[in-house]
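FIELD: query
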Amino acid sequence: MLSEVETFLKSLNGTRVIYIPNRGNAGDSFIAHATYQLFDRMNLDYEIGSQQGNYPGATLICAGGGNLIRPYTNMISFLKRNLNTWRQLVILPHSVRDYADTLGQLGANSFVFCREQPSFEFMKKAAPKANIFLSHDLAFGCNFFETKRQIALRPAGDIFNKVILSRNAKRLVRAIYYSVANIRDPQVLNAVRTDIEKTDFQIPFPNIDLSQAFAADDMGPVSSLHATYWLMRFINRFQVIVTNRLHIGIMSAMLGREVSFYDNSYGKNRDVFTHSLARFKNVEWHTNLPS
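FIELD: result
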């Protein structure tokens, strides 16, 4: 059975579309990788654009994620610059909390997929003329067997010849991996966020903010493939994952790890858990921070 997004994308067969990736961390790479897999399954004819671009008359597909929330400005700046010059606008499953003034100008040729109920309700109110759908984060559609197959098909020297992770991140991953693997409990991975969406969660030791550490230099197909693959391999070394990173939680759940899952600063983790992750018996939601 096709998902809401797949059903819609099927209607675009024969249409040349422009995919606008969302710059971000390894969680965004995971979404991007799952999106490229989806496009390939749907035989979608696409080219990759940029959030800095202008595309009058095009069918635009904006990446899923959580960029329509202050203080993030990448996607809303792109939408303002291209507002209603597009043939069609598609926003893949997103969390939306802000920018109602701009989103309210979306018309009947705009199609917005929300990845949880509060975003769906926000968009229905903010953009009454647009087409609003409730869906699931696209990362849930990632096929890890296909990811491994894609990696196996890459040239032998690919990992060495392409800059798939930032130089600082590669050094960080090498350094922290050994401390995480050998200090205290080698079965438990603490992956607590340290960025703008952090909470009062007391950062445990050792801790590695995986989404930052594995952040790729770009969101193209090759970089997203490698970032997803190596993130997957890293997580698979542990049995228990403690995190308030949404896509670390999603990937860990899909890989069958035991997940202790906490909220981020504005509640998207709670909302995605309620809508999508609660069906995973290996994910335990925590309403309170650990003592």
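FIELD: remark
The chain has two domains: 4-140, 149-285.
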